Amino acid sequence: MRIKLNPDQIEESLTALNEGAAECWTLENAKLHREFVFDNFVQAFGFMTKVALFAQEMDHHPNWENVFNRVTIALTTHDVGGISSLDFELAHKINAAL
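Given the sequence above, the corresponding structure tokens read:
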């Protein structure tokens, strides 16, 4: 079941998500946000392909943008009107895809 997380739950989950990471997820416009930079377009597109497979399997699709070697991802759960545990689950999978 998808349930909107409260600010304390979001902060706790964000801390756990970013633990030990050089690059971090942030909150931006009430969404989980992160920008990824790769050596070239092919690497960026390959990363997006991996993420697309996770997202399809989870039936939870990111808002994202790709410009050459950069991929920007914003996660929110539209049907609950905010961030849910599903967003953090996908963010963990995205981190593992690097």
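The chain has a mean pLDDT of 95. Try to locate this feature in the token string yourself.
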